Amino acid sequence: MQPALFALCALCFSAGIAGGWYLSIRIRNIPEPGPSTPDQIPMLRIGPSRVSGRGVLATRPIDKGETLERCPVLEVHEGDVGGELLNYVFYGNDPSKRLVAMGSGMLFNHSSTPNVGYWLEESKLGPELVLYTLRRVEKGEELFYDYGREWWESRQLQQKN
């Protein structure tokens, strides 16, 4: 091996060792995240429901009118929705379309005395369901919205409380 090539290889090897050593020191000195503030704590969690399968539960007290989530939605033609998915779609402004909510929007169960309301809003990125509380909700309480009369009638079911 030529002396110049050997020196170049030794220099590259030494630079790699020095760079690795420097990065390992920098990584070890990254501070640990501090305790979360209330606005950083997720307010919702998915867990076992007291009424049916999964549900959405409050992880902290939530005031009346507080926005719970902005769920992006996909607008699909009603003919493209079938099977079990029928139980998880929303009705929008167009009677021939259904809304498929992303996030936890699909997992709220029904109550005829709901503690959650929602509205459809157009954003720069597309339609969103904005979910908000209708009253104060306590930590651990399950969140519900009213599926509406049309949901029950379209399935020929009697509305549950």
Please give a quick description of this structure.
The protein is α+β, with helices and mostly antiparallel strands and 161 residues long. It is 20% helix and 32% strand.
Features:
single chain; 161 residues; alpha+beta; Beta-clip-like; 2 domains; five-stranded antiparallel sheet
Characterize the structure shown.
- The chain folds into 2 domains: 1-32; 40-154, Beta-clip-like.
- The protein contains 2 helices and 9 strands.
- It has helices spanning 3-28, 149-154, and strands at residues 44-48, 54-58, 67-77, 89-91, 97-101, 109-110, 116-123, 126-133, 142-145.
- The strands form 2 sheets. It has a 5-stranded antiparallel β-sheet, with no helix packed on it. A 4-stranded mixed β-sheet has the order 1-2-9-6, with no helix packed on it.
- The mean pLDDT is 79.
Q: Based on the structure given, which CATH architecture of the largest domain is correct? A: Beta Complex
Rg result:
26 Å
Main beta sheet: strand number and arrangement?
5 strands, antiparallel
Strand content: 25-35%
Category by helix and strand content? alpha+beta
Percent of residues in helices comes to: 10-25%
What's the CATH class of the largest domain, please? Mainly Beta
Mean pLDDT: 79
**Please, what is the oligomeric state?**
single chain
How many strand elements? 9
Q: Regions with pLDDT < 50 over 5+ consecutive residues?
A: none
Q: Helix count? A: 2
CATH superfamily of the largest domain: SET domain
Tell me the overall shape: elongated
Which strand order does the major sheet show?
A: 4-5-3-8-7
Can you tell me the number of structural domains?
A: 2
Q: Would you list the SSEs in sequence order as H and E?
A: HEEEEEEEEEH
CATH topology title of the largest domain: Beta-clip-like
